[in-house]
Specification:
With 99 residues, this protein is mostly beta strands. 14% of the residues lie in helices and 46% in strands. It has two helices and seven strands. The chain has helices at residues 8-14, 86-92, and strands at residues 18-21, 33-43, 46-53, 60-66, 69-75, 80-84, 93-96. The strands form two sheets. A five-stranded antiparallel beta sheet has the order 6-3-2-1-7. It has a two-stranded antiparallel ribbon with strand order 4-5. A hairpin with a 2-residue loop joins β2 (33-43) and β3. The two termini are 30 Å apart.
């Protein structure tokens, strides 16, 4: 099946929209919320939208002591992003269009 892409104006109009995942994706569970952060051109007249997902924080904290010094290091996961063609966007997420 050939994907359907957004036109530039339609893709750009979705930037800032709140979205919710309707299905599980790798690293993104069903029901996850966040927003469209970018419209990206693949080819002339073929645009996709990028969603950055708000995932539950899985921060790690590491403690170390060396001689008389203590070190605490906290790591945060990198944001997960997905690019969607128009048909995938319509099928896999629900959007509250902000225009």
């Amino acid at each position: 099946m050939t994907p359907t892409f957004f036109a530039e104006t339609e893709a750009r109009s979705h930037v800032g929209d709140c979205v919710q995942a309707l299905r599980d994706f790798p690293s993104v569970p069903t029901g996850t919320f966040d927003k469209v952060v970018r419209a990206r051109k693949l080819k002339p007249d073929q645009w996709v939208v990028r969603v950055q997902w708000a995932l539950p924080p899985n921060a790690s904290v590491h403690f170390a002591t060396l001689l008389h010094l203590s070190f605490n290091v906290q790591t945060q996961p990198k944001p997960v992003t997905d690019d969607f063609s128009k048909d995938d966007f319509d099928r896999l997420v629900v959007s509250s269009h902000s225009s």
